[in-house]
Amino acid sequence: MKARRFGTLIGLVVLCLVLWALTPFFLTVSNLLNIAEQTSINAIVAAGMTFVILSGGIDLSVGSIVALSGVVLGLSLHAGYSPLVALPVMIAAGVLAGATNGLLIDRGRLPPFIVTLGMMSIARGAALLITEGRPISGFEESFRALATARVGFVPAPVLIMATVYLVAHFVLTRTTFGRYVYAIGGNEDAARLSGVRIHLHKPAIYAVSGLTSALAAMILTARLNSAQPIAGTMYELDAIAATVIGGTSLMGGEGTLAGTLIGALIMGVLRNGLNLLGVSSFLQQIVIGGVIVGAVLVDTVLKRPRT
Amino acid sequence: MERPALTMAGIRKSFPGVVALDGVDLTLQAGEVHVLLGENGAGKSTLMKILAGAYRRDGGEILMQGRPVDIAGPRDARALGIRVIHQELSLVPSLSVAENIFLGAAPSRFGVIDWASLRTRAARLLSDLGVAIDPDAPVNRLALPQRQMVEIAKALADQQSASVLVMDEPTSALTSREVDVLFGLIERLAKRGVAIVYITHRLDEVYRIGHRVTVLRDGRNVSTAMLGDTSVSGLVSMMANRDLADHYPKQPAPIGNELLRAEGLGRAGVLEDISFSIRAGEIVGMAGLMGAGRTDVARAITGADRVDRGRLFVRGRAVSFRAPADAIREGIGLLPEDRKAHGLVALLNVARNIALPQSRKVAGPAGIVPRRAEAALAAPVIRDLRIKATPDQQTRQLSGGNQQKVVLGKWVAGDARIFVFDEPTRGVDIGAKVEIYQLMNRLTAAGAGILMISSELPELLGMSDRILVMHRGRIQAEFTAAAATQERVLSAALGLAGPVLSESPARTARANRVEG
């Protein structure tokens, strides 16, 4: 597993060196910060996705939850509430949507794919319904600072991403909840018979994914100065791709958040570099698709038993 | 005598650490129903899997009509006219009866299925077998016995006729009337000259349907005889293992207070009126055939499954378990029957597996696990149980015996006082077995109580203070260690009348009523 994570990191470094050789603009402080900022939203969503995939599940509803919690935030701010009220409300909306996924999957014994596919449609529909399909735009500078401010030279979204990863990494590696995520993904029956309360922890795992979706929506809304009911489309695929490139097994039980962060950075670097090189966005899609399949192929070959 | 339809001579097969078959012979005449008897693990299934081509034999010869044959895979077996009907049916539920019968061999012209021919041939086959089933009915609308008939029809559907038919416990799910229909069919097939191997645990059936019987024990032949020349008790004593040379290191511990008591536990269709107790220092053995409900008892008293009826007491206090976590809090630990499926998280390392039930305690109130806390908890367990692994090693790399010790370690590391061990020594080598017995001694000496479920009678007799015997979801009998013999326990497990010997008159009365 360690060799695998090392492999992803080497992949990222090699990719950066190639792009540095091809274009002088790539390896500049401002471009690297730009990449980190561009990556922050996908990376934050992918952090929650990693919890879900580690537990043996999948969450297709993250993009729609980004939109729903975003418009809840927009409406609250426009209703005159301060960000100190509006932010907890929108985070509660995301957590609630995620926990609902988890409750249905656990209590209803439904496949995560089906439940979150349903939630993908429900949350999107709810976002469109409460906004009548219109974006909510124009917010105060104090709120927009969440996306525009810099601490020293570091953009606020990058700081938020770093904080999310530090906290999530601590939770995953140093708390009982983190242990249970791996145990449930590795063998749910054995975890239950060992006294893990599945009914409690499964909804919590999906709630984490709802929480990170809401945090991503916060940055997105501040950056765009607009909450859009059609925001976050296809975010689920980017988040799954980052998680999988980062070496997390779709079967659950195996993977790390560090890997996911590297996976998200690989996707961000690739997009940025291809843009700098003037590669058409159509060709970019083909390259990124190839990287996803290639990363998993390498993973599978490395893990194949040598007998 | 004409040449036997099938001769298996000196068949040997071993798996890592176990000799499953050690020179077994079986001879079948055309037109006979040959009963194959033996305890769980005697080698019946392995022998039949070799015949069906599922396993490759290590040694010995197979002859059909006197000619040596080589069965390298299921295709070879089919080509030789050998058909096996397994306990688990192999039908596609959404397809029709006719489609299932000719699955993979449907009559077709240029790749287009000839539906008319498919239907008429299926109908003819079914009426030949004397069963009234609509060939167009989807299989998922049929009752279990009808499905079994379809399975038999499928086995006989090929162009080349079946010469040997193996039936593995075909009546285990049937009512007595359905059994009559099945037996009528078996008799007709035998009259046509098919040699039939019939595996069952129901000794009453053996005399209704069988001509000859072969008894296996520990991978060896005990006897082959005409059924007319044997009695039920004769069969039971042949199946029972007389070889008590095995030494079990049982060290009786002082028997203390009652730790666990079950009163009338029941679950529809699975368990009925399960009542027993476990006291401190006691090993209560539980015998029974596969499917008798032993594992269901284990799961019921550890919170893994809910029960419909009955009450459970821990140290005299009524408890109700909604999940295994509740049972663990009461100090009950379960070693599940299938350690890969239910015991281990194979991707996690040894320390984290051992610490998993203790996570809360390791972590403290905030839920934060201190660095190396799990390794610190696991290290003494690894030493005590002599697990050949480091705390950081992934459990999937360990041998069966070491994996089993890791699962045991999960409960030894905590404060469990009541241990439920379901087949604790299955699939582990002899050295690890003895270590597990010694661990059980240490646990009882420290005042713990153990429920030990096992399919190995010598182990049950060697280690238990009392033995409960289950039969079809009930406790059929209870024996003290002094009164238990292999014959008695086996008779009770087979559902034959057996004396109930217990100190408790109430217990005796109830169990007798069950038998009456």
The strands making up the biggest β-sheet of chain A line up spatially as 1-4
Structural Rg of chain A: 19 Å
| Uncertain stretches of 5 or more adjacent residues of chain B | 499-516
Shape descriptor of chain A: globular
Number of helices of chain B: 19
Tell me, rounded to a whole number, the average pLDDT of chain A: 93
What strand line-up does the widest sheet of chain B have?
Answer: 6-9-10-3-11-12
Instruction: Name the average pLDDT of chain B.
Output: 86
SS-based class of chain B:
alpha/beta
Describe the protein's architecture and organization.
The complex is a heterodimer of chains A (307) and B (516). Chain A is an all-alpha fold. Chain A has one domain. Chain A is built from 13 helices and 4 strands. The mean pLDDT of chain A is 93. With 516 residues, chain B is α/β, with parallel strands linked by helices. Chain B folds into 2 domains: 234 residues, Rossmann fold, CATH 3.40.50.300; 258 residues, 3-Layer(aba) Sandwich (Rossmann fold). In chain B, the strands form 5 sheets. Chain B has a 6-stranded mixed beta sheet, with helices on both faces. In chain B, strands 18-19-20-15-21-22 form a 6-stranded mixed beta sheet, sandwiched between helices. In chain B, strands 2-1-4-5 form a 4-stranded antiparallel beta sheet, with helices on one face. In chain B, a hairpin with a 2-residue loop joins strand 4 and strand 5. Chain B is globular. Chain B starts with 5 loop residues before the first strand and ends with a helix. The interface between A and B is medium-sized, with 23 and 30 residues.
